[in-house]
Amino acid sequence: xGPDARAGSALRPSVVAHxxxxxxxxxxTLEAVDAAAALGVSWVENDVQRTSDGVLVVIHxxxxxxxxxxxxxxxxxxxWKVRDFTAAEIxxxxxxxxxxxxxxxxxxxxxxxxxxxxxxxxxxxxxxVKNPELYPGIERETLKLLGNEGWLDRRHLANRLIVQxxxxxxxxxxxxxxxxxxxxxxxxxxxxxxxxxxxxxxLVNPSHTSLSSSYVSAVHALxxxxxxxxxxxxxxxxxxxxxxAVAGYGVDGVITDEPDLVRHALYGY
Length: 269
Ligand code: G3P
Ligand code: CA
Hints:
Bound molecules: SN-glycerol-3-phosphate, calcium ion
InterPro entries: GP_PDE_dom, PLC-like_Pdiesterase_TIM-brl
Domain GP-PDE: 13-266
Protein name: Hydrolase
Pfam families: GDPD
GO molecular function: hydrolase activity
Number of domains: 1
Distance between the termini: 12 Å
Structural class: alpha/beta
Number of helices: 11
């Protein structure tokens, strides 16, 4: 079945494929988006950074080293930071072989390519602006590209796109630039700080490791910038027992490398 063919979007919690279906295919590649789609998973999460010549690309680490062959292709360019390479250079890298020979030739996608692939599968996107402090202006550039690609159309905004960040400053910038965009603050702020963040964050997205039902309830007691209850998507939940536990806390989303496992644990299919 295609995304949501069975679940619809009404089931709670939503299941979100972390960096795509990253237990099945190399993280943050188009192949990982395809793998999520093949599993019928509608939400994918990714990480956005910027090349030296200003192109937005989808990759998690600050360095190219772990998930590409940059070290072999560009010896002498240590420490292989994403921001020190042009888009053309990054396009030459193999971002799949580290994961498995079957994925040799997978690339680091540009955000534009990534959005096209998510759109092709009619999926939903949890877009993380990664390390925004390293990339001044990345919020505006990301929103511009989202707009150019049609992701800021009204029909998408309420239920198909969330922009998240560990940086409250970055998230506030996103909110100020495009107030209609739904935003998620990564981490687990102190209870006393939650009302302040609810001025610009529609979600608070903590690690599952210290999450509790009382924390989820405290977040749910807040009203976000769009007049709805502030939601909780938790990460990274890769086993059935934890998936059931966080669902019991009342979370709204479970971010996982193993979306099929989590869906089976929660919904039995
Ligand atoms: O979506 C939550 C999660 O992605 C945050 O941590 O390090 O995997 O980007 P990280
Ligand atoms: Ca992420």
